[in-house]
Amino acid sequence: MKHIKLKMFGKHSVSALFFWLSIVCFLLSVIFFVGTFFSDLLKAFTALNSISKISFFFIPKIVFFYMLILIFRAFKTEKIFTKRTVIYLYLFAGINFLMVLVILLSLKFEGYWAQDIVPIFPLIVLGVFGLFIAAIFKQGFQIQKDNELTI
């Protein structure tokens, strides 16, 4: 029986699989947002609140999946320690923290229950994790750049 070695980075890798999964999630989010937005847009003339709920819920998710697409696209290339990858990782962390802020602001204006705060914790963890990974990739990029100068 032949052993299959699964790579984490590169053309045929786990990163490539997650790149395509992120595209599917992004497209489904956009399709669902557009369908929900335009159906509720007709009702919105009587209730402006529904548009703000849809926008605050779907737009950050669409941006989140788009950032995942950019990150996994960078990971599926052969050279992963690039300045662009570091920027994408920092943006990903920032977007997660921004989504926490948006959720807190929307809960402040609408009133909230204890269970409404629960989605904040995974976003904080993803943001902190993104910062750690960005710092690691920044160091890797610097080491790679230094090695290219010495060769």
Automatic annotation (TrEMBL):
The keyword Membrane applies. The keyword Transmembrane applies. Keywords: Membrane, Transmembrane, Transmembrane helix. It comes from the Bacteria. The chain crosses the membrane at residues 12-34, 54-75, 87-105, 117-137. Pfam families: DUF2975. This is DUF2975 domain-containing protein.
